[in-house]
Amino acid sequence: MKLGLLVLTANERETNRTRTYDSIRAIAQQTETDGFDSIWLADHLLYRHPGEPTRGIWECWTILAALAEATQRVEIGTLVLCNSFRNPAILAKMATTADEVSHGRLILGVGAGWNEPEYQAFGLPFDYRVDRLREALQILRPLLREGHVDFGGQYYQARNCHNVPAGPRPHGPPLLIGGEGPRMLRLTAQYADLWNTGYIGEPETMAEPIARIEAACREVGRDPATLGITALVGVWFPDLQAQKPGFLTSPLTGTAAELAEAIRGHAQLGVQHIIFQCAPYTPEARQRLSEALRLYRGMRPQ
Question: In the chain, what are the domains?
Answer without folding.
Answer: 2-298 (3.20.20.30)
